[in-house]
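Service request form, structural biology core

Requester: graduate student, group of Dr. S.
Request type: structure prediction, single chain
Budget code: on file
Notes: please return the result as structure tokens.

Sequence provided:
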Amino acid sequence: MQKKVPVVHQDGTPLMPCSPVKARKLLQNGGAVKKWTKTGIFYIQLTTPTGKHTQPLALGYDPGAKYDGFCVTSEKQMQTSGMLVVENRIKKKLEQRRNMRRARRFRKTRRRPARFNNRKNRENWLPPSIKAKVEMRIAFLKQLLAIYPISQAVVEDVKIDGNRLKGQKGRQYWTWAMVGKTKLYRWLESKTELSLCDPEDTAQVRAEYGLTKIGEKKAHVFESQAVDGLALCISALGTQDKSVTSFSVWRRPENPRRQLHRLEPQKEGIRPPYGGSVALGYKKNTVVEYRGKFYRTGGTTKGRLSLHRFDYDNRRITQNAKSEDCRALFVQNWFQKKVV
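Core staff response, request fulfilled:
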């Protein structure tokens, strides 16, 4: 089976994906225009009136502690699949910020007052690291549901026995994990028909249909995480063709924020420009066309732009690009690596 291209209506309603040949003809005839999501997925938007009839599509999602796997299929074949890196360094960043604030309080400089013991946690409060993972999943799924007519979502529900966790920290983690799952499930229920599946049922479907899963979870291959998403889709729709048509890996960029002071004071009180989300009028991670090629914008040095490769690794290419020589296309808030 060949890869499919997502299609949306004139008003933005997702339609059934089409073949690359048909998408190419629509673009050549002016019947569609090129579009990209913030995750970097290419799709087309029709410019002529058409119907909105769609076939049922299922989303299989397998959340994990560091890596998530998903798959979107129809009754006939797979539409897309991928792996989402949800691992973050928020705990270390918060610790560094706390140390920087403490250091400023011992210097003769502007500082914020200490407010570490006068706040109460709100109801359904989540630690920043867990909250970021839940919001990252929701933000990514929003992009999928915007271009695929998904009518059903099947999620592997990993249950944690709080009675077996020792100590206060273990019980707190169990509470936070349950609250985080509930937030994701409620959002999916508001968008699609949600059903939960036990890990044992997923393993049974893999064994029945000969699907292989490897033990190395961080490997950028279909068999590491996304295979469970396919098994969940099979249990929901009974997908006929099990071949992999598309597989990609996504991760979120870590943009440095503006810092009032560093850990060490600057000489003569002059702070160098560091962090921020805009450089020379371009929002960071904006995909631009520069000398006939696509690049992603970074920071600025001496009035010139830093351009990076338009891929998962985000390797820097140049630091001397002029802003007037770049043509902005779209903002990509995710780094994508196409494997299949």
